[in-house]
Amino acid sequence: GFQNKFLIALSPPGDGLLAFEAISLRYVERSSASKSQFMMEIMQLRFESTGTGSTPASIRTYADRIQEIDALYAECNSGVGVDASIIYNKLLDLPARYETCLTYIHDKSSDRLLAGDEQLPTQSVKQHIIGFENRLARRRAQLSRGASRPRRSVRGTARAAARASRPRRTAAASCSRSK
Fold first, then answer.
1. pLDDT tens for residues 122-156?
2. 91: Cβ–Cβ under 8 A, 6 or more apart, which residues?
3. Cα→Cα distances 124→6, 61, 94, 108, 118, Å
4. pLDDT of residue 145
């Protein structure tokens, strides 16, 4: 509108993208207080707090929230987001139930570093954790379905099959052996 007319006049003629950026970034606060606020939000973010009423906390909700805060930080830091190593380590700040998954990721990253490669990429870490969550959900579903069905004893079934395959002793055969 007319209130942003001066911003358009400041951009070179024909450069609509620069004019759009000037208007969209007009109200973005670029103070160090804003940067420190968003950095503090990332550092204080807890995995459990990223879930909603309909969606439980998962690596997807956690990573999305980290990326949202990182985008806000980048807006007030001239387009430069939080350092990638901070984001990487924050993604690995998971509850104790992820311990086996995190152990695998740390071992894989250590192996790569010892071989002279870089640590596992962030996307690979996310994909591994998503796979871990999917396996947990599948196991829970199988256990909940399995609990409603009566289970047969495998051991008892094997004994019954072994008894059925043995030849039966008759009373006459037992008497002849004992003499």
1. 999 999 999 999 999 999 999 888 755 555 555 65
2. 59, 62, 63, 66, 122, 125, 126, 129
3. 46, 17, 16, 11, 12
4. 82
User: When comparing pLDDT for 49 and 169, which is higher?
Assistant: 49
Instruction: Please give the structure tokens belonging to residue 106.
Output: 């740390």
Q: What is the CA radius of gyration of the chain?
A: 32
pLDDT classification of 165: cutoffs 50, 70, 90: low
Q: Model pTM? A: 0.65
DSSP assignment string, the chain:
-GGGHHHHHHSPTT-HHHHHHHHHTTT----HHHHHHHHHHHHH--GGGG--SSS---HHHHHHHHHHHHHHHHHTTTT--S-HHHHHHHHT---GGGHHHHHHHHHHHHHHHHTT-PPPPHHHHHHHHHHHHHHHHHHHHHHHHHHHSPPPPHHHHHHHHHHHHSPPPPHHHHHHHH-
Quote the tokens at residue 165: 């395959």
